[in-house]
Amino acid sequence: MPAERVRGDAPLVAVYADESCLGNGREGENPGGAGGLIEIARGDGLVRRDYWISENATTNNRMALRSVIEAFRALSKKGNTFRVVFTSDSRYLIDGMTDWVHRWAARGWRRKTGPVENKELWQEAIEIVNGHAVHWRWVRGHAGHPQNEYANELATKAARELSSSHGAVPSGFDLWLAAQRAKGRMALEPDPLPARFASHRALPG
To answer: What is the dotted CATH code of the domain comprising 3-182?
Structure first.
């Protein structure tokens, strides 16, 4: 279902995702992880879920794409359709989803300078995202943004432990935030769900 056909009253979801690669860019196999916090508006409350995955040998860019794939895999269960605000500190991911993929698709999935890096993951991400309406949002990493910092914790822990949540699981965000505040950290308040929603254009089919 194209994003333009997603109903305006479809449930609103916020996803805060991050990625990690231990030794990114160094020779040899570098383990990595991706993790995210999913926030879903239900009635008068907010339901939070976590997810994380890992790879034995990877890169930051690969894991940024995996953060999208795993989030939307969880959201798409049972044919659900959402309006999603997807927040990441990866310019590679956000610029790719809002700009690059449209140009690559128009050129037959090639860049002017040659093949598209991680083409299969970009295409997998697009396939699973299509059907939802998405606003792609960038935030600066390691700047005290509570949900982004929490997603970073999930991703780096997954990389260290080479672990997976195997889908969305009950979130530990509230306990984590309370512990951070007790240590005098996280002065910023968590982002609320947005009062207004405007999706970016649908991804190429």
So the answer is: 3.30.420.10
